[in-house]
Specification:
The chain is of the alpha+beta class. Helix content is 17%, strand content 36%. It has 1 helix and 4 strands, in the order E-E-H-E-E. The longest helix has 15 residues.
């Protein structure tokens, strides 16, 4: 069974220096960051690896969705969610 992940931008306080906007979506994996900013990808990478093998964050409600993930730029706060898609 193939697993892929879609990262969705769910919030933005300020201005993203890379140009990401609310509603942007990126298909990523533990090997490919797509067009997602490297800093944002770096902050969500551990969750992608964990979810690939069935792991969940303590605050995660749905097995295939994890939200409330943030870009490390605290001044221009970008928030994201990861959706696991199994094919």
């Amino acid at each position: 069974m193939a697993v892929k992940f879609v990262v969705k931008v769910t919030g933005l306080k300020g201005h993203c220096n890379v140009g990401h906007k609310i509603g942007d979506q990126f298909e990523v994996s533990k090997y490919v960051s797509s067009d997602l900013c490297g800093a944002a990808y770096h902050s969500i990478y551990p969750y992608i690896v964990s979810m690939e093998f069935g792991g969940m964050a303590p605050w995660q409600i749905e097995k295939d969705v994890i939200g409330a993930l943030a870009c490390p730029d605290g001044y221009n706060q970008l928030t994201m969610e990861i959706v696991r898609v199994t094919e």
